Amino acid sequence: MVNTIEQDHGRFRQIVKGKLRKDLKRFIARGEMIGREGKKLVSIPVHDIDIPTFRYGDNAGGVGMGEGGEGQPVGGGKGEGGENEGKHTLEVDVSLDELADILGEELKLPRIQPKGHHTVTTVKDKYSGVRPVGPAALRHFKRTYRTALRRQLAMGMYDPDNPVIIPVKEDMRYRSWVEVKKPQSNAAIIYMMDVSGSMGDEQKNLVRLHAFWIDTWLRRNYEGIESRYIVHDVTAQEVDRNTFFSVREDGGTKISSAMKCCSKLIEDAYDPSDWNIYVFHFSDGDNSSDADNRECCDILRKDLLNSVNLFGYCQVKSAYGSGHFLNVLREAFPSSAFGGADVGGATVQSGAAPADLADSKVITTRVNEREDILESLRVLFKAGR
After folding, report:
1. What does the longest C-alpha to C-alpha distance in the chain come to?
2. pTM of this prediction?
3. If 0-12 CB within 10 Å is exposed, 13-18 middle and 19+ buried, where does residue 54 land?
4. CATH of 185-381, one of 3.40.50.700, 3.30.720.120, 3.40.50.410, 3.30.70.2570
5. Which H helix or E strand runs over 227?
6. Could you report the per-residue pLDDT of 170-229, keeping only the tens digit for each?
7. Per-residue pLDDT tens for 299-314?
């Protein structure tokens, strides 16, 4: 019976995963899903799945069997019912690891091979056997009933015509575990965002949603993740996560201030030989001057690209931003092979082999609306860095 239930549950999970794959772009664009995020689960409404129900025969009597004909409105209400069938909606809990796997399979993303030394060791519990004592939460039902069946057979108490198995205390079996030490690959994600007056609430919502999916994919590939946040207008500073997604300034924009702040953060906290470092900059493409554009490119080429696995620049559409900085990066780093045409809001690779490994770490995407995030993720991570 237990095996049958487990098989049915497994089939149901496969159906749910199929629905998620089919509507992956729509689910990724759902901003409210992030609000449901728990420790490791998100709740996702899945449409058009019939929820199993019990059907009963006619009742002879009892509560609710008073006067009144079948279909008569309760309480004498008036009005006609609708003729259209209602949508079947089921809200299911999906782990972030499952979401990341579905994302990786659908986008054909290669698993990331971490670099650096495994300097941090975590201790985890590994279930290694069965024992006769333990907490109720670790009870091994199959082994318990197998032991009870053996006992009843040995004592001649088992009746095949009435196969009732009743475990006693001596039959109880529990999972046992040992502590194992596991080397942990470290990764640091540094998010930078322009918070000047041209970046409005809609742009920040795009950034928040994009950052959620970046986090989800990278956490599937690394055991240890640290996230840091930098905001900037003409000056830059490190802030906490809540401030990052809520602060707004009215000043101008100087992108080099964020890159200098990021470079200092890496120098102080993250040795590139021990950490896999990912930097993502979100902006509407406005910058103060051509001189600052040149300074940004110098900082990237001489400093940041020597330390990071990937520098991703994600430009969001704004009614007030010029969008020029995207072109600056593409012209400055042509060997990154990401200077081709835009498809689905993101830049696609032309297929040419990059001439400079450092330049190839610069990846640019354009995200005009939420539906562009899926293609942006494909472009950012298809190199498997």
Report:
1. 92
2. 0.65
3. exposed
4. 3.40.50.410
5. strand 224-232
6. 999 998 876 655 555 688 999 999 998 878 888 888 898 899 889 888 888 887 789 999
7. 999 999 999 999 999 9
